Amino acid sequence: MLMNKNEFRKQQLAKLRGFSQSYQKLQEDQFLQEKLIATSDFKNSVSIGITISTMDEIDTKLIINTAWQFNKQVFIPRCLPGRRMEFTQITDYNRLTKNKFGILENWQSQSTINNEPDIIIVPGLAFKSDGYRLGFGGGYYDRFLAEHDLMSISMVGSLRLIEKSCWPINDYDIPVKKLITIE
Predict the structure, then answer these.
(1) Does the annotation flag 23 for ligand binding?
(2) Which of 68, 90, 106, 181 is the most exposed place for a label (fewest CB within 10 A)?
(3) 132 marked as binding residue
(4) Is residue 109 within 8 Å of 127, Cβ to Cβ?
(5) pLDDT for the residue numbered 165
(6) What is the homologous superfamily of the domain 5-181 according to CATH?
(7) pLDDT recorded at residue 172
(8) Does 6 show up as a binding residue in the annotation?
(9) Mean of the per-residue pLDDT values for the chain?
(10) Predicted confidence band at 3 (pLDDT cuts at 50, 70, 90)?
(11) Is 49 annotated as a binding residue?
(12) Was 71 annotated as part of a binding site?
């Protein structure tokens, strides 16, 4: 049965928040990050676009730290007017500012902007096996991916992979190109 996106989003967020402090989530996040780091997409990249994860997302710190260890450029999104975003380079976790959604952003005036990183790690609340995702409701990534044809990858934990269609897919929804799952 199809649910409206907002209804399914609320239901999924409640499920994920109940799971967020569990040992299983910690294990899954570690596994997914290690699996992504082992991909040729990551190994061959020079630059990555990635969020600094919040509690409701798959942890990203191992990926970011590994990228720095291998001298990769790390770019994080920052929200712009009109529900747009751009990616700015970070070299550490200092001088970041939380936006209205609680997401850390880089607003340093001398920041390098790169909206064409080699790979982009896309967060989401739920995913279908064909790459369609349900995000947090702002449409930022769909707009960004519609304008930038990038290697988009999402890490999908056990509660995020939805086998049957639970929400409608719209013309403006952009699927990610690769899913990293726990299987």
Answers:
(1) no
(2) 68
(3) no
(4) no
(5) 75
(6) NagB/RpiA/CoA transferase-like (3.40.50.10420)
(7) 93
(8) yes
(9) 94
(10) confident
(11) no
(12) no
pLDDT (average), residues 113-141:
95
Q: Would the annotation count 147 as a binding residue?
A: no
18 known ligand binder: no
User: Is 52 among the annotated ligand-binding positions?
Assistant: yes
pTM over 0.90: yes
Proportion of the chain above pLDDT 70, given as a percent = 99
Q: For the chain, which residues make up each domain, given as ranges?
A: 5-181
pLDDT at 28: 96
* HEC readout, the chain: CCCCHHHHHHHHHHHHHHHCCCHHHHHHHHHHHHHHHCCHHHHCCCEEECCCCCCCCCCCHHHHHHHHHCCCEEEEEEEECCCEEEEEEECCCCCCEECCCCCEECCCCCCCECCCCCEEECCCCEECCCCCEECCCCCHHHHHHHHCCCEEEEEECCCCECCCCCCCCCCCCCCCCEEEECC
Flag whether 7 is marked binding: yes
Q: Tell me whether residue 9 is annotated as binding.
A: yes
Segment 143-170, tens digit of pLDDT? 999 999 999 999 999 999 998 778 889 9
- What residues contact 110, with CB distance under 8 A and at least 6 apart? none
Has 57 been labeled as part of a binding site? yes
